[in-house]
Specification:
four-stranded antiparallel beta sheet
Length: 217
Amino acid sequence: MRTQIISIVFLHIKCLITFSSFCQCCPYIGKIDLIPPIPSENESFKIITEATTPNQGGKISKSHNMLGDTLYLQSCYWSGLLTSPQTFKDTFNIFGQNTGNYVIKFKTFQSTKSDSCNNQRFQLATKLFSISGANTTQIEDYFEETKIYPNPTNNLITINFSDIMSAFLLDLQGKVVLEIPITIPFSFKIDAFPVGIYMIELKHIYGYTSKHRIIKN
């Protein structure tokens, strides 16, 4: 009980200091992430949201709807009687859209009932995102956390990653010339291949694929 009280007190102190959106009741909205961060045209993608209720409770419902360039997300949570914050993560699967700029409007409701959403309190957050044409250069720019080095190179390549299921080396015609073994550290040699331009295709655990151009010199 002492730990729970300290958590609530800390939350209120944080609110007074930062005036952040997390401090507005309720539920408090956290991160809104896209996977991949910049989807390609007509490519399905995921949106992962975080919301925190001030008390322990449960998730009641979620929904989404696309109207024009606005994607409306809604989630409803029940905040129970046990005084301890609880964070929920929701995943929304979105079908492919046309190239352009879009806005996410994520609205969370807090219900006093555990079996239905009576929308007693709500919070709203927005996030801008883009959908681009599916060309190689743009795909390379999608994943800042994935680093491939050195590039150009004449031999060893290292991939700094955290979510790769499989990896392939492709020539410019899209033919797989090497299935890259997943190792730690994640490095492989290309000294046996002719000088030229190649693509590294990475399949990520969240279901999307990224491509990265490398130069063999």
